[in-house]
Amino acid sequence: MELICTHISELRLVAQSIIEFNRKYSIWLFEGEMGAGKTTLIKEICNQLTVMDNVSSPTYSIVNEYVTKNNKIIYHFDFFRLKQEEEALDIGVEEYFYSQNYCFIEWSSKIPSLIPPKYAKIEINLYKTNQRVIQLSQHG
Which domains are delineated in the chain? Predict the structure, then answer.
């Protein structure tokens, strides 16, 4: 599935479409170059899922935990700073991934062998006009 976002005002509808498309998946990989809008999109998805916490990039903490209005937990990972996969294992990433809670993962390419076989992928491509083309796929 492909979505096109030409303005920030369309982000709410894009987030709703992503949620509906990936509803049966708990692991979501967000791919895209630096500045493509991965964290911004995750913030809007969390808003649509009624997260009550402040959503921010977990670049330094590696993982943030958010709670929704219905007491569901969402984990948000940013593996950009990792040098080795073992660093993800050290924080207990497998427990998070197999918790059945939503896990939104930025920079999953840093931990390829740790990604569960069933996941959704959200790939964001940024074009000169600030247009973003978002490719959605499901695996497993």
Answer: 2-33+42-133 (3.40.50.300)
